[in-house]
Write a structure and sequence with these properties.
358 residues; nine-stranded mixed sheet; eight-stranded antiparallel sheet
Amino acid sequence: MKKILSVILCAVILSTCFACGGKVGDKNVTLSAEQDSPYFGSYYLENPDGIPKDAVNMIQDEKYQYGINIVTPTTGTRALTGNLDYEVKARFLGDDKPGGEAWEYLNRTRFWSIAQWTSKGDIGAESNRTLTKNGNNYIYENDYKKIIVNPTDGILTLRANAGKEYDYAERPESMREKGEWTHLLIEQYTNARYYNLECVKDAYVYLDFSLDEVRNYNVSAAFAEGQKAQLVWYFALNLAGYKPTWFGIPLYDSSEANSMVKGEVYTHDPGMDYPLYAMAQDEIFDSQIQVGTRYKKAVRITDFLKYCFTLGLKRGVYDENAKFEECTFWNMNLGFEIPGTFDAQVTFYRIGLYYVFK
């Protein structure tokens, strides 16, 4: 246990010490297949197209090789109900054997988790799911959800059967007002949390994904109000002394099937009681994304972060003492929010939050 704690503490200290001093390059934080650390760098030899060569991915364990924790569907708690450890083949910190102290510690500290808030069919408990293996794919499944992880190639598939969850009947408006709808998202506290934005010259996000299926069980106009499927990517923009703001990158919204979401959105998240900002969708895509098409998108978000902060000042989220340069990105979540009777599936082939340091 002490060895594991020292490794984690060392990673935190190194990350903090090298902020803003031009030391990231000096430390030779390069994209190398030999660099086996989940704390910094990448499993990949090169950055994807559209991302500068000197940018560093702030997302840890890009290929999910250390397993994934599963968070309870119950809101208001971060209790874990299980994990995906690939038939006890997931990597772990330290040299302990499975079942030892290091292994048990990892079960609480994996880099990735999956949120399934206010949904049925908890997929964390082994008794609530089946596991099959097909090549490099580990397939976890029950009637309400499917998760496919390929830790060799770093591919993850999420499927939510929200139609079945609500017996193909309309979600009560009272639930929608509270944010009580089906969620299935991957989450992580990224390495970006160690760096104030004053350290960052440029910030980019990258996503290689396909929306594999969206099925609506109720298509009547009278039923459509508030019933939709959304694929979203949010980061928490944090500033000490103030509420976090969700910074959103909209990917898909079934209610906008024939048009783009044009113009930013600044609103309020009823579930978390946080301010919420979302970029305009037409700043990301040339047209509405299509089911069955694979997309590879790199987006520079530096100016949007500044604009989000400016809106927060105007809306009273921050006061005159708040400084953009002191903000940090902390946790992220990516996946489905479905306040409607939809089945939906997405596959992520590669994701990243990239920083170019000053």
